[in-house]
Structures are given as C-alpha cells and as structure tokens.
TrEMBL record:
This is LysR family transcriptional regulator. GO terms for molecular function: DNA binding; DNA-binding transcription factor activity. CDD domains: PBP2_LTTR_substrate. The keyword Transcription applies. One of its GO terms (cellular component) is cytosol. InterPro entries: HTH-type_LysR_regulators (IPR050950), LysR_HTH_N (IPR000847), LysR_subst-bd (IPR005119), WH-like_DNA-bd_sf (IPR036388), WH_DNA-bd_sf (IPR036390). It comes from the Bacteria. Residues 1-58 form the HTH lysR-type domain.
C-alpha cells in the first residue's frame, strides 16, 4: 500500500468526486479510479459508492478512513522530523479558524510566518466553534482557533481576552450611555447568533442570569450588524468581530466587563507535528494579537 493511494482516497472523500480529485491532484480520472480500485482489491471490500451525483464512503470506507487519516498524519510527522534533523523546516499545517480571526489575525500571522518558514505550507478550514472542535477530534486539522473553554480532551493555549460589546441602533435611548448593565436590555428585542456561534453570548447572559427577548437568530455577524443598524433589535458581539466595521451603529461597553477568551487548540501537545509546534510557538509570541 502506498501513501499516494491514501492521499488520492482522502482527496476523493474531501471533494466527493473522482473527476474533481483528479483535477486537484494532476492525475487523469482513470488513474484515480485505478488507484481506488487497487486499494479496494488490497482491502478486500468496497470503499466508495459511485453515482452520477458523485462519490461517498461505504460503511467500511468510513471505518478505514479514520485509520488512513492517522497514517497520513504520522507519515507527515516523520517527513518533518527527518527534515528538521537536516536543518530544514518543512511540512503542511491544517488550521481551523472562524471569520474574525481569519480577517483580523491570520493574514499578518501567515505573511510573517511564511517569511520565516517558507517551506511550511498552510491550509485553512473555516467554520464555527463546533465544526472546528469536530475537525480537531477527527484529525482533519492540526490545530484550531477557538473560544475557550473547549473540550477537556484537547490541549489549548489562551491567546487573547476579547471584550464583549453591546450593539445598539444610533437612535436607541441607551446609545448615549458610556456603559450598560445587562439588566437594562433584558426586555429589548434581541438578535442572537445562531447555534455554533452563540457560545460567547450565552456565557455572558448565563453569568448575569439574563434572559433577553430573542426576536431573531442569525448565523452571520455582519447580518446581525445590518439588522441592528435598521433598528430590528440589539445584540452582543466580541470586539474583534466589530473591529473596522463602518455601519451606523453604536458600540457600548458593559458595566461589568465580559470577555471572549480566544485560544488555539490541538488534540495533543505531545503528538503534534514539528511544523504545528513551530506555528503554535510563533502565534503564542506574536506581538500584534
């Protein structure tokens, strides 16, 4: 069995298509099909269900892919370790992130990191907190930015305390105040981030024993800002999300400060690859966070 066959299978699983996988990896479709057939012959069972709409894993395929993902991860670790012995920093890091970190932190971090480590490739996967946690647990990514606390089984490194702010329409009666108590907004129409992105707001409300009048649940932070601007309600979001926004809304601090604790997590600090370890140390000491 070869690593190339495993990589081809994982690309087919990722893209859901033999044709797309072939295009992405520079192979012919027949070549990809041959490698998948070869793996199925070696394993003695079918890995993929092929149809006009694409491909998906069989039940046996779902089981075997978990092990293949681990094999590829440790093969990558081996390549990186051998390279580091020769004084070369190389490898690929798969990083999970969410929008505000992807917009305000990662462009500068990646630019500076790749100037210092040009042979380390970075691949990003964007999702919400729950998706990133699942990806770490499944081994789909090497590390992920998250709002802490996260799962107990992960190793996490705190990075930044991000203040939570109240969003108000400009004409709102409370918009002239320098700060607001949560009790003052309990009866206000509230726009809530949707499930998967609501952890930060829920922590604030639960700590203050506040139950707002939730009128809308919205998945996009910028949609929340637009709705507040139009007077459809108020909301609470982290400062990093709001940084640089130009909407006609008022941002007010809470009298009792609340923070989103931003950090980066891995499945195990002991088992992470040399390239991932290098990236985490770089982020930990990055002066612009």
């Amino acid at each position: 069995m070869s690593m190339n066959k495993f990589r081809v299978l994982m690309k087919v699983v990722e893209l859901g298509s033999l044709t797309k996988a072939a295009e992405a990896m520079g192979f012919t479709q027949s070549g990809v099909s041959h490698m998948i057939n070869s793996l199925e012959d070696e394993f003695g069972f079918t890995l993929l269900i092929r149809s006009r709409s694409g491909t998906k894993l069989t039940t046996n395929g779902e089981e075997i892919v978990k092990t293949i993902r681990e094999i590829l991860k440790w093969n990558e670790h081996l390549d990186q370790k051998v390279a580091s012995i020769h004084g070369i920093e190389l490898g690929t890091i798969h990083i999970g992130t969410f929008t505000s970190v992807a917009v305000h932190w990662l462009p500068s971090i990646i630019k500076d990191f790749q100037q210092d480590y040009p042979h380390i490739e970075i691949r990003l996967a964007e999702g919400d907190y729950r998706e990133i946690e699942d990806w770490i647990a499944e081994g789909r990514i090497d590390c992920g930015f998250l709002s802490l606390p996260t799962w107990d089984v992960f190793d996490a490194m705190p990075l930044h305390q991000d203040p939570m702010l109240v969003l108000l329409p400009m004409e709102h009666p409370l918009s002239s105040q320098a700060s607001i108590r949560l009790s003052q907004i309990e009866n206000e129409p509230f726009i809530m981030p949707s499930k998967g992105s609501d952890d930060d707001v829920n922590r604030v409300l639960e700590r203050a024993s506040t139950k707002p009048d939730i009128k809308y649940t919205v998945g996009d932070d910028y949609a929340i800002m637009a709705m507040v601007e139009k007077g459809l309600g108020i909301s609470i979001l982290p400062e990093l999300v709001l940084r640089g926004q130009r909407r006609n809304i008022r941002l007010v601090e809470l009298q009792e400060p609340y923070f989103r604790s931003l950090g980066i997590a891995v499945s195990s600090m002991r088992e992470m690859s040399p390239a991932t370890k290098r990236f985490l140390n770089y982020v930990k000491n990055y002066p612009k966070l």
